Amino acid sequence: MVRVRFAPSPTGYLHVGNARTALFNYLFASKNFGRFIIRIEDTDTERSKKEYEESIIEDLKWLGLSWDEGPDVGGPFGPYRQTERLHLYREYSSRLLSEGKAYRCWCTKEEIEKRHLSRHQQDSGYDNYCRNLSDSQIARFEAEGRTPVIRFRVPEKKVVVNDIIRGPVTFEAGTLNDFVIMKSNNIPTFHFAVVIDDLTMQITHVIRGEDHLSNTPKHILIFEALGYNPPEFAHMSMTLGPDRTRLSKRHGATSVRQYREKGYLAEAMFNYLALLGWSSKNNQEIFSKQQLIEEFSLQACNKSNAIFDPAKLLWLNTLYLRSKPSSEIFELSIPFFEKTGYNKSDLEQHRKVIEKVIDVEKEKLKTLQDVQERTGYFISETILWNPEVAEKFKNPEFAKIFSEIRDILNAVQPFEKSHIEAAIRNFCETKNLKTGEVFHPLRFVLSGQTKGPGLFDLIELLGKQRCIKRIENFLGLKRHNL
Which of 82, 313, 356, 424 is deepest in the core (most CB within 10 A)? Predict the structure, then answer.
């Protein structure tokens, strides 16, 4: 059975590049009726935080991923946090020591660097100094009270990584120095822990970023030293920004959490991440989750770097928003209303109005944040008029126009768009006023905005009483010099 894993370090929020790795593992497992495992690599105790682990789990669930085993759901190969598996790493490192496939090293960083400088070599790697120490040398180091690390004894052999995406990648003999597998504090290094975890959790395929390709020979050698066949490897292309540099803060939002907070839809993010470094046979771009599972294959992944384009993600998000019913958009936008002071019960009272506004404005919505920004003034009891804009309408001429429109609106029956439009256009014609001289100021008075839905849609959605009240409030503010 196919068994794959996603193993994040809880040292920050879920990066979109890591989310893409998780997604590819999920798609591969689902496609092959396998098992998808979440494993937390938290041996960096200084930087690892419980809050980051919780946020990673939460963001993966939001994205639409589910898993068969993990720290939150358990499983037959647990525990699923590395700090709870330390006994395993110590057991396997002791085995390698006893078999002569690893050795204790007492060298300090300063000594290693000093020997490197004396050799005048560009390679700053370890020189295998402690590989064949005599008993007296070992005794001297122990007498000094030094605490050793454990290094893996790298055999002199060529290592070939048969990568599913990249094909065979050869690492010649002599390119690796003896590397540390257990630190002096008895904590495993990444290279050792990841192998022991993959071995004991029976991982069949390791799907990860290209930046790990150079680590893979080390991992293969450890598997072989322990007498096991390594899993199959697939190294995905790197996720870069639009300028083709590594995706970072200078490109804007880089974590899934940030995109959630900006009001992006999980389905759009799921769809977009799947397209990074992978494409379908017919270059289709819009997929349901099930379609992606059926279409996905590692062989169709690109070797070239994937470019994360925020503009394309926003475009895709817009399409997904337009496809949703207004009732669902309303539910999804509630948290964004709540951030600006609304409570859920008040929103429910205005549900019909908000959904009608969403219907009118749907083509202009790009994220869920836009829903609150474009509909909030329809349900707010108070409007904050920008003083600089309001200043333009602080004269008796506009006061007279607004007062007359108030009376016209009060008389419109029924209070529907066509009747409202006919009444106001008739007013402009009778008073010999250009529509722009009336429509734009009226929109501002009623909404505090200079753009939005059509004016007559706006008036109908606001309702007669709210329109009259806002005009009167604006006129009242004028008398108090705003």
Answer: 82
Distance CA 465, CA 463 (A): 6
- Say how far apart CA 469 and CA 475 lie, in whole Å: 10
pLDDT tens, position by position, 10-20: 999 999 999 99
Comparing 193-202, 261-270, 276-285, 324-333, the range with the smallest average pLDDT is 276-285
Residues with a catalytic annotation lie at 249
pLDDT tens for each residue of 151-199: 999 999 999 999 999 999 999 998 899 999 999 999 999 999 999 999 9
pLDDT tens by residue, 415-470:
999 999 999 999 999 999 999 889 999 999 999 988 889 999 999 999 999 999 99
Helix (H, G, I), strand (E, B) or coil at 197: helix
CATH for the 85-236 domain, from 2.60.40.420, 3.90.800.10, 3.40.50.2300, 3.10.20.30: 3.90.800.10
Nearest to 443 by CA among 435, 433, 432, 451: 451
Report pTM: 0.90
CB atoms within 10 A of CB 449: 17
Q: How many CB atoms lie within 10 A of CB 409?
A: 21
CB atoms within 10 A of CB 259: 27
For 387-479, CATH gives: 1.10.10.350
Domain 3-82+239-311, CATH homologous superfamily name and number? HUPs (3.40.50.620)
What DSSP letter does each residue of 50-118 carry, written as one string? HHHHHHHHHHHHHHT---SBBTTTB-TT---BGGG-HHHHHHHHHHHHHTTSEEEE---HHHHHHHHHH
Residue with tokens 């475009």: 315
List the domain boundaries for the chain: 3-82+239-311, 85-236, 324-379, 387-479
Neighbours of 156 (CB within 10 A): 7
- Quick count: other Cβ atoms within 10 Å of Cβ 164? 17
